[in-house]
Amino acid sequence: MAVNARRKTMLSVWMKNSAAHTIPQHPFHPFNASAYMRIKKLCHANRLQEAVDTFKHLLSAESKFIPSLMTCNLLLSTLVRQSRHESALSVYRLMGKKEIVPDLITLNIIINSHCQTGRLDHAFKVFEGIKTHGYIPDVITFSTLIKGLCRKGKMEDSVKLFKEMVGKQQVPDLFTYSTLIDGLCKIGKTYEAFGLLAVVLQKGYEPDTITFTALMDRLCKEGKLREAKKLLYQMLNEGHNPDVITFTALMDGLCKEGKLDEGMELFYKMSNKNICPDVAIYSALIDGLCKEGKLREVRKLFYELPNKNICPDVVTCTALIHGLCKESKLQEAMGLLDVMVQIGHQPNEITYNTLINGFCKVGNLEKAKELLQEMSEKGCKTDLVSYNTLIDGLCKHNRIDEAQLIFYAMREQGLTPNVVTYNTLMGGLCRVGNLKEAIKLFKQMGENGQVPDRVTYTTLRDGLCKEATPQEVKRLLHEILKKV
């Protein structure tokens, strides 16, 4: 009776907090092999809803068997792995109603689910519940929570938990260290990440591809391409097989630094390693080649994508559109815009802004205005770049009245003009000799909290010197300075 009372009390606490651990006195549920195999078969076939329905049937009054803990954990782990988190939590709650007491494996799965969905508060409730009952979280428990904290950028908390883990005599494994290294890299703590790598090596662990990739990506983001390449060759020499993500990190860094020859060399090295480049690799290369004006090579890469069974994404298409606009091949760029839509990709603000800029540069301002209107109609958010680009194009072609209308339209859209907006419009007003409006705009700029810069003062000075007498220039400059 005492044991049953204790079991019911512990079940009650678990149900309340969703935070129990393996309880040695949990009720024994006969292992139903046929039920387990049925659910396993459904899980492997990705027929998850049928698996959940089968599980619910096993819990019904019609069923002679209650699912074993092994069956529960199988279903839970599959649901979480397939990101069916609400279904997993529903199954978990049903376990509690039927007094199926979770073990550590169960709780680790639930903690993982909460971490993946960013519900760290729930994850730590489960974690605290384990400790409250005097049970010992294992390396998987700690590593899962550390990864959840790293995903949120909470590195201080993750390091604190890591220290707690070591204090509890839980030995961190390679996954734990790799997670911390990746987290440190993501927040720019390269020195600390390499320091942790040294600890990994001292402990006799062999860093895996994930660890190397995180470090390489960080080095590339800091422009340390020589060190990144050295790390790649270290991987190869030590028998590691870099994956496409590893190559993408280095490819992106090389292309952004304009090292296209090295980028192409890396591209062919991938082929030699039987690693198929993905859309991210192609996007990085296409973007780099476009910036160098190498459209011939770009077209070759872009149009071989279908043969590689790779569908270009928004980034790939936008990179090529940028290259085409740069070379004033706007008809081809608009054709590619249509292709994007046909293959199911909606152009984003970068795509539209690139096209608006391209048409402004060739003086086709009507088309630029149409594209700005199309952005709104298609539900694509217009931003400061969109309006500033069009205002600049209108001012350069002395269509100042239209530029002013666009200026006021952007404010009606809830966008606050920045210093670039004001400088551009003031420059246009000064160019057509409308100093009165330019000075009025300058005053308005200060009233709206925008701080004038060197370009602002140079623009007004040049405009004043061009249109006013020396006496007027002195008087107007004095008036302007009083407003600063």
Characterise the protein shown here.
The chain has 27 helices and no strands. The protein is mainly α. Helix 7 runs antiparallel to helix 8, helix 12 packs antiparallel against helix 13 and helix 25 runs antiparallel to helix 26. The N and C termini lie far apart (84 Å).
The CA-CA distance between the termini, in Å, is 84 Å
- CA radius of gyration is 31 Å
Task: Enumerate how many helices there are, as a single number.
Answer: 27
Low-confidence stretches: 1-28
Helical content band:
over 70%
Q: Based on Cα principal axes, name the global outline.
A: elongated
Oligomer: single chain
Strand % is: under 5%
> What would you call the structural class?
mainly alpha
Number of E strands: 0
Mean pLDDT: 85
H and E order: HHHHHHHHHHHHHHHHHHHHHHHHHHH
Question: How many strands, which pairing sense, and closed or not: the largest β-sheet?
Answer: none
Question: In a few lines, what is going on in this structure?
Answer:
By secondary structure, the chain is mainly alpha-helical.
Characteristic terms for this protein:
484 residues; mainly alpha; 27 helices; disordered N terminus
Q: What secondary-structure arrangement, pairings included, does this model have?
A:
Blueprint: H1 2-17, H2 33-44, H3 48-59, H4 69-81, H5 85-97, H6 104-116, H7 120-132, H8 139-151, H9 155-167, H10 174-186, H11 190-202, H12 209-221, H13 225-237, H14 244-256, H15 260-272, H16 279-291, H17 295-303, H18 314-326, H19 330-342, H20 349-361, H21 365-377, H22 384-396, H23 400-412, H24 419-431, H25 435-447, H26 454-467, H27 470-483
Helix pairs in contact: 2-3, 2-4, 3-4, 4-5, 4-6, 6-7, 6-8, 7-8, 8-9, 8-10, 9-10, 10-11, 10-12, 11-12, 12-13, 12-14, 13-14, 14-15, 14-16, 15-16, 16-17, 16-18, 17-18, 18-19, 18-20, 19-20, 20-21, 20-22, 21-22, 22-23, 22-24, 23-24, 24-25, 24-26, 25-26
